[in-house]
Design a protein that fits this description.
This protein has 355 residues and is an alpha+beta fold. It contains 9 helices and 13 strands. The strands form 2 sheets. It has a 7-stranded mixed β-sheet. The chain has a 6-stranded mixed β-sheet with strand order 12-10-9-8-11-13. Strand 1 and strand 2 form a beta hairpin.
Length: 355
């Protein structure tokens, strides 16, 4: 990790990448070609338990997996399989992305022969925007930009019955000190006789997310703060960074009906410009925006929620634009300047994000 923390995104060079590949080449791998123009390289450090398990329970200690009671005793005595994965992407002579993942098997409960334990997984990856990009994985942590930490999101997936998984996705323009904090691990979890059991034991930064509070009474819920209008103004650059589409609308007509319990209004608008993307049809297209406090005669900049493209409104029309929190801003020079700050943090990665 000391080697990996030497990487500076968009600054570390092909020569820096080559030094890493030379040092860690025994555990390194890449598919296809690996040149200064483009290279996707990964390093996987595993122990004999993981290698035996990964090779189909055959090999020098494969008998453990074929003898259930022996396997349980092995786990109780401190045996566990573990994997440390690190990957980076080189493009045009610089390192653009990094991804670190650590997986450790947590042993079964003592004297419970029916318990097989579970897998503890922590992930930290960089992306140019904190949203799902084409070819990349999900960005866990909700659609809104966190006001208290706009450079990263954290969350957990649903549906895994044999694992606890915490994931952090951070912007490629996150300050270096913050990247190092987010990607710091307690590697004593690999060697302790008493195993680490929670994601925050292995990656301390995930403690602030309280992702698995419901599993342990010693972890206490914290209230979820909501963004105020003043916070929205401060985060326009982050919404611009993360948005797939940013639209300018005008020719505004307010519909008389209110939305659910008056929480928003429906406004007929025309698309006058795309500042980013273009998923809502040609310029001049008429659309319905679900928003509040829009005033006829003014221009607005809209950040639609990504998953609402093509969503139908209450009348069955498929022209509805659903903005996220803080997703409608008046079109002013100040807002435009903040937009440019966010757009400047986007890049054009060839191929999918790391996942």
């Amino acid at each position: 990790m000391a080697d990996m923390h030497q990487i500076r995104l968009y600054q570390s060079t092909w020569a820096d990448a080559q030094r890493l590949m030379l040092r860690w080449g025994a555990w390194g791998h890449y598919d296809g070609s690996c040149t200064a123009a483009e290279c996707r390289y990964e390093i996987n450090l595993t122990d004999v338990s993981w290698r035996t398990w990964d090779q189909g329970r055959h090999g020098e200690i494969g008998w453990l997996w074929r003898h259930h009671i022996a396997y349980i005793f092995y786990r109780w005595l401190g045996g566990r399989y573990a994997l440390i994965h690190f990957a980076f992407i080189v493009q045009d002579g610089k390192i653009w992305r990094t991804h670190t993942c650590v997986k450790i098997a947590v042993p079964p409960k003592l004297l419970d022969k029916d318990d097989l334990g579970y897998l503890l997984i922590v992930d930290a990856k960089s992306q140019q925007a904190l949203r799902r990009s084409e070819g990349g994985g999900w960005v866990l942590g909700g659609d809104d930009v966190p006001a208290e930490h706009p450079y990263y999101k954290m969350g957990r997936p649903g549906g895994c019955e044999v694992c606890l998984d915490a994931e952090i996705t951070y912007s490629t323009h996150t300050p270096q000190a913050e990247i190092e904090r987010l990607t710091s691990f307690d590697f004593s979890c690999l060697t302790r006789l008493i195993s680490c059991k929670m994601p925050e034991d292995l990656m301390p930064a995930t403690h602030e997310g309280h992702l698995y509070d419901f599993l342990d009474p010693n972890y206490h819920e914290i209230p979820i703060s909501t963004s105020s209008s003043s916070t929205c103004k401060d985060l326009i650059w982050a919404f611009a960074r993360d948005a797939g589409t940013v639209i300018v609308v005008d020719d505004l007509t307010i519909k008389p009906e209110k939305g659910y319990n008056g929480r928003y209004q429906l406004a007929n608008v025309k698309i006058s410009d795309y500042l980013k993307g273009g998923a809502y049809g040609p310029l001049g297209s008429e659309r319905t925006v679900e928003a509040k406090d829009m005033i006829p005669g003014k221009k607005y900049i809209v950040f639609p929620e990504e998953h609402t493209y093509g969503k139908r409104d209450r009348y069955g029309n498929d022209s509805l634009i659903v903005p996220g929190t803080c997703g409608v801003q008046e079109d002013t020079p100040e807002v435009r300047r903040e937009l440019e700050k966010g757009f400047a943090q986007n890049d054009h990665l060839r191929g999918p994000e790391l996942r």
